[in-house]
Amino acid sequence: MTEWDIKKLQILRSLRDRGTVTATAQALRMTPSAVSQQLTNLSKQLGVPVLEAHGRRVRLTDAAHLVLRHAEAVFAQLERAEAELDAHRRGEAGRVRVAAFSTAVSALVVPAVQALRPAHPGLDVRVREAEAAEAYELLAAGEADLALSLAAHAPTARDPRFSRVPLLADPLDVALPAGHPLAGAPGLRLADLSAEPWIFGGSGPWSEITTAACEVAGFVPEQAHSAAGWTAILAMVEAGMGVALVPRMAAAERRTGSGVVMRVLSADQPRRHVVAAVRRGAEEGPAVARVLAALRQAATQGEIVQQS
């Protein structure tokens, strides 16, 4: 098979464009003898002469023109590769795989992707919904580049495998049936609901979060029902089957019916802390850094909405 040498082909193209060995040497910052030597070697590699005498000068042979017609496609592809590689270095291209729990996908990841898309269309963010433990397993195994989870259920900051980035302190509000006696009570506290039947999340860490928040308020909640999704939980609240703690991020993405009242708790407002994590050192990669910055921006906007 013929040996193709890109550098020598570029010299040949320069000679075609500039007309003389001297002009080619000046443009490429080479000596005329070095240009001639390189093209002699190219002829040997291709098995055909690429130059022929033309008076006191040289000109390209028909074989040289044939070779350059094909080489132009190679040069164009190399230019595209260089442009893509440069974009990759700047974090404007590449793939970032994100594993995140359900409400973080809709409240943080989707807005981040939407913000990144216009300015960085070459950045490919792939999303996988996963509970906290699974997200970190995917991250540790190299199947995800970035994991979103709750701080209480994430590896500690001392874990040498990961770097953690705080994103959001998400308030937990209480969902009450519209006709509940405390639905309009001023200064509602979590302890005021100690005798109520409670609806717990049926998957992930949510049961633990509800129990912990209530215990801080001085009581152990009675678990009356459980459900895996917020739509089902809020439907049970609306039916008067109990009350539930609902993250404000989750309530914002699901329109509660007129039969549900969301109350901001007074004084003892519990919060869940959302964090992002990457394998330690990966946060310095430009593509991952761009996604992290977009997630921080989405979290900041989310906090503004929650406070308004």
Give a structural overview:
The chain has 308 residues and is of the alpha/beta class. The chain has 10 helices and 11 strands. The protein has helices spanning 6-18, 21-28, 32-46, 62-89, 102-119, 132-140, 206-216, 230-238, 248-253, 286-307, and strands spanning 51-54, 57-60, 93-100, 122-129, 146-150, 162-177, 197-201, 222-227, 244-247, 260-263, 271-279. Strands 3, 4, 5, 6, 9, 10 and 11 form a 7-stranded mixed beta sheet that branches. It has a two-stranded antiparallel ribbon with strand order 1-2. Strand 3 (93-100), helix 5 and strand 4 (122-129) form a beta-alpha-beta unit. Helix 1 (6-18) packs across helix 2 (21-28), helix 1 (6-18) packs across helix 4 (62-89) and helix 5 packs across helix 10. It starts with 5 loop residues before the first helix and ends with a helix. The relative contact order is 0.14.
Summarize the entry for a quick read:
The protein is an alpha/beta fold.
Q: Layout of helices and strands, plus pairs?
A:
Elements: H1 6-18, H2 21-28, H3 32-46, E1 51-54, E2 57-60, H4 62-89, E3 93-100, H5 102-119, E4 122-129, H6 132-140, E5 146-150, E6 162-177, E7 197-201, H7 206-216, E8 222-227, H8 230-238, E9 244-247, H9 248-253, E10 260-263, E11 271-279, H10 286-307
Parallel strand pairs: 3-4, 3-5, 7-8
Antiparallel strand pairs: 1-2, 5-11, 6-9, 6-10, 6-11
Helix content: 40-55%
Largest pleated sheet: 7 strands, mixed
String of helices and strands: HHHEEHEHEHEEEHEHEHEEH
The secondary structure category is alpha/beta
Low-confidence residue ranges:
none
DSSP strand content? 15-25%
Shape: rod-shaped
Number of strands: 11
| C-alpha-based Rg, rounded | 32 Å
Average pLDDT for all residues:
86
* Cα separation of the termini: 70 Å
Summed up, the helix count is: 10
